[in-house]
């Protein structure tokens, strides 16, 4: 994969980053990957065990489900989109990142968004939605999804379930399909 200059710069900064305690337990940072000119970006919560081991986002079982969503619901390839997380280092035991960890890491996500300039960002799960939209942590995913899509500075945000949630409860799958159809329509109208 060819990396844009900003990606290499950002990856280097993240590799050296010790802004929050998550740097202490990471094996590899997981900056994100994909098409640097993508019109569609996915943002998840944080790296899991497989991602931490490989230094790549969404490569475990949840990642395989995300790959299926990209092909089946959006008619795209994984290499067409950009995939990142709210925090770039794995929270121990896959716990939810704290507000402070997310705030410390947010400038990296913001930099990715400003370089990629996506038309649509799909927030995978409540943590990503909270990070991107600034809602309090207590806001339920059901409530967040009800107001899809959100208009932000130059892009839309569509909130849906995290693929790991679907692995635990397959009944959410139809909701994901609905959300990704919204994202697809937004991409089509430009
Ligand atoms: S999670 Fe983000 S802010 Fe924290 S150490 Fe890793 S790169 Fe730095």
Write the layout of secondary structure elements.
Blueprint: H1 5-16, E1 33-34, E2 40-44, H2 49-54, H3 61-72, E3 82-85, H4 99-116, E4 120-124, H5 126-133, H6 141-146, E5 150-152, E6 155-160, H7 163-168, H8 173-189
Parallel strand pairs: 2-3, 2-4, 4-6
Antiparallel strand pairs: 1-3, 5-6
Helix pairs in contact: 1-4
Iron/sulfur cluster (SF4) binds at residues 14, 17-20, 22-23, 29, 87-89, 101, 104-105.
CATH hierarchy: architecture: 3-Layer(aba) Sandwich
Q: So what's the CATH class?
A: Alpha Beta
How many distinct beta strands?
6
- Helicity level: 40-55%
Q: Classify the fold: give the CATH topology.
A: Uracil-DNA Glycosylase, subunit E
Determine the structural class based on helices, strands and strand pairing. Answer: alpha/beta
The general outline is: globular
Bound molecules: iron/sulfur cluster
**Cα separation of the termini:** 26 Å
What sequence of helices (H) and strands (E) makes up the elements? Answer: HEEHHEHEHHEEHH
In CATH terms, the superfamily is: Uracil-DNA glycosylase-like domain
- Whole-number total of structural domains: 1
What's the overall average pLDDT, rounded?
A: 96
Question: Could you give the order of strands across the largest sheet?
Answer: 1-3-2-4-6-5
Main sheet attributes: strand count, strand direction, barrel closure = 6 strands, mixed
Count of separate DSSP helical elements: 8
Please mark out the parts with pLDDT under 50 across 5 or more consecutive residues, or reply none: none
Rg from alpha-carbon coordinates: 15 Å
Query: Which range does the strand content fall in?
Result: 5-15%
